[in-house]
Write a structure and sequence with these properties.
Length: 229
């Protein structure tokens, strides 16, 4: 799964990876650096409507379009293996595919009966890791007046499988346009999930302070030890 991540890049830096973004985003403020993005956060994500690429503020934790109240549990992740079939996700998968900008994400591994957090990222030195885009799905619920999203995950690549058995789908840059295009068929969109950069991921241990959502500062991405894969 993916339950925490970081966004430390500018829109100009994200556009170097997400070449579907128009050049004018280079002058756009934000996104605000966040070293401990948690569920229920409202984030600027990349969406597409009638072929037009847009940046919208959307809350993390998908509520399906048919939910009548908040008793329905919001879901932060959607399994790529079943996202096109599950009633909870399938409409969002078909009509609301989106991109979540990020520069790294956290996972925890139990070591000596203690949960040790790790920051997983593409190659690069902190804090300027290579920006990327996670595959997401978005839902608009008219009843609740909400726009929400979930991050699509797959079984972890060998590069990070010893940290966690799932990982967010980090789409290759040449797959982004087709992913957000509503004309892309469900079968083709599922194929795009295999176009990801899991094999490129690396990681290192960080402070256990990341476990509290109250902590959001840049010190969270400092190495906790000299051991790094």
């Amino acid at each position: 799964m993916c339950g925490r991540f970081i966004t430390t890049g500018t829109w100009a830096e994200y556009r170097q990876y997400m070449n579907i973004l128009p050049p004018e985003v280079d002058t756009r403020n934000g996104p605000q650096p966040n070293y401990n993005t948690a569920p229920t956060s409202e984030l600027e994500i990349v969406t597409s409507h009638d072929g037009e690429i847009d940046i919208e503020a959307v809350r993390w934790g998908l509520m399906p379009h048919w939910a009548k109240d908040t008793k329905v549990r919001a879901m932060i992740n959607a399994r790529g293996e079943t996202v096109a079939e599950k009633p909870f996700f399938r409409t969002a998968f078909e009509y609301g595919r989106c991109l979540i900008p990020a520069t790294g994400y956290y996972e925890w591994r139990t070591e000596n009966k203690v949960k040790q957090p790790y920051l997983i990222h593409l190659p690069g030195d902190a804090p300027t890791f290579e920006p990327y885009a996670m595959a997401g799905i978005m839902s608009y619920n008219k009843i609740l007046g909400t726009r929400t999203f979930a991050i699509v995950t797959l079984a972890a690549d060998q590069s990070v499988a010893d940290i966690h058995n799932r990982m967010p789908v980090i789409l290759n840059s040449d797959a982004l346009a087709a992913w957000v295009n509503s004309d892309t068929s469900k079968d083709d969109a599922l194929e795009l999930l295999q176009e990801n950069r899991g094999a490129d991921l690396v990681y290192y241990p960080v402070s256990k302070d990341v476990g509290s959502v109250k902590n959001k500062g840049p010190e969270l991405i400092e190495k906790a030890s000299n051991s790094e894969k």
